[in-house]
Design goal:
SH3 type barrels; globular; 2 domains; 6 helices; 23% helix; BirA Bifunctional Protein, domain 2; alpha+beta; 7-stranded mixed sheet
Length: 276
């Protein structure tokens, strides 16, 4: 990579391209935010804000991922956004939102030139790049939050963070078993245009929100790299479950075989199981 200087976001081009798209038709940009997620939640309280609106940040100072992890970002190096989805745009099964968002990020990253065979999803919704699962590195993550009234979900916020133009020095040191980070620029050897990446994500997200449930589940399952392997699942309360990842169901839960029985895991973090 000759230079990792990020290209500035072209918000005018994004607005003109996405003005009739179901996702990204309106973009609220902030140079710096603690996190895009709370801003999107605030927008949900305003009846004049349409579903599919995007909150975009040049930098997050307190971004967060799954299981309360921090998501590090530097100015202009990442694609950092949250999408507001109201009830009318939500899938019939809200639990499928991680599938939709994960696949949207995956397809968008492939559009930058990353070979299809070198990128996949780590259950439940991290994007990884590598020659195999054993040397995979994390390049993006997805976080879903929703608000309910009674038994019905009134809206959801889909948060996405993609390491686009980080150098090796920009990336934090991560202790195993968590995957080490990488960036698209490091993998491609050239600077990534985050405007193109934003447009691709919004278009892919809009398309996948209309995909029939069986097709969505099949596409997501085929993109997961940690199925049919010996894994250890760290559950939200901190306990661990080791076994074989047999597959996933239509709600996105992981099916793990262990000790002669199967357990359905709806939330957790997966790593390859090692001896000891």
């Amino acid at each position: 990579m000759t230079s990792n200087s990020p290209l500035p976001l072209d918000l005018d081009r994004a607005a003109a391209t996405l003005n009739v798209c179901a996702v990204g038709h309106s973009i609220q940009y902030h140079e710096t935010l603690p996190s895009t997620m709370p801003v999107a939640h605030t927008l949900a309280l305003r009846p004049d804000i349409r579903s599919g609106a995007v909150v975009l940040a040049g930098q997050q100072t307190a971004g967060r991922g799954r299981m309360q992890r921090r998501w590090e970002s530097l100015p202009g190096r990442s694609l950092l956004l949250s999408v507001l989805l109201r009830k009318n745009q939500l899938p019939e099964q809200v639990l499928q939102l991680p599938m939709i968002a994960g696949l949207a990020v995956l397809r968008s990253v492939i559009s930058t030139g990353v070979p299809r065979g070198r990128v996949g999803l780590k259950w439940p919704n991290d994007l990884v790049i590598g020659d195999s699962w054993e040397n995979a590195r994390k390049v993006a993550g997805v976080l879903i939050e929703s608000s309910s009234q009674g038994a019905e979900t009134s809206y959801a916020v889909v948060g996405v963070g993609v390491n686009a133009n980080h150098s090796v020095e920009d990336l934090p040191q991560i202790e195993p078993p968590s995957l080490p980070p990488t960036s698209l620029a490091l993998e491609l050897g050239e600077v990534v245009d985050c405007t193109d990446l934003l447009i691709a994500f919004c278009r892919n997200m809009a398309d996948l929100l209309t995909l029939p449930s069986p097709m969505l589940a099949a596409a997501w399952s085929s993109a997961l790299w940690n199925l049919h392997r010996q894994v250890t699942v760290t559950l939200p309360e901190g306990s661990h479950l080791s076994g074989t990842a047999l597959g996933v169901n239509e709600q996105g839960s992981l099916i793990v075989e262990h000790d002669g029985r199967t357990t359905i895991v709806s939330a957790g973090d997966v790593s390859i199981r090692t001896s000891g």
